[in-house]
Specification:
Number of helices: 2
Largest sheet: 6 strands, mixed
CATH superfamily: Probable tRNA modification gtpase trme, domain 1
Structural class: alpha+beta
CATH class: Alpha Beta
Distance between the termini: 15 Å
Oligomer: single chain
CATH architecture: 2-Layer Sandwich
């Protein structure tokens, strides 16, 4: 089972953009980006950092434990500022992790919710 990520909000400039990370490595990878995960289902502001420790953005982070999530899997939602540069930096950072990939068209979670 893959861990996948994708922009979950509309593309382009926006006030807020949402990026979702879902799968068995979601919490582990998110910990590498925001250093300390919030409690499950608790929205918290966290600094998101790149692989060099440089701040990408300050974002709202929410963790959902499977099967009680949108995808049925462990899921982390990053609610970032809507700048295209910030979104691209976060997507690049997520692609740095082994066994984590950008969701392809038609990717569906493998869960009892399907």
């Amino acid at each position: 089972m893959d861990t996948i990520f994708a922009l979950a909000s509309a593309r382009g400039k926006a006030g807020v953009s949402v990026v979702r990370l879902s799968g068995p490595r979601a919490f582990e990878c998110a910990s590498g980006i925001c250093l300390e995960l919030p409690a499950v289902r608790r929205a918290s502001v966290r600094k998101l950092v790149d692989s060099q420790g440089e701040v990408i953005d300050e974002a709202i982070v929410v963790c959902f434990e499977g099967p009680n999530s949108f995808t049925g899997e462990d899921t982390v939602e990053f609610q970032t500022h809507g700048s295209s540069a910030i979104v691209q930096a976060l997507l690049r950072r997520l692609s740095d992790f082994d066994s984590v990939r950008l969701a392809a068209a038609g990717d569906l979670p493998t869960s009892p919710r399907q």
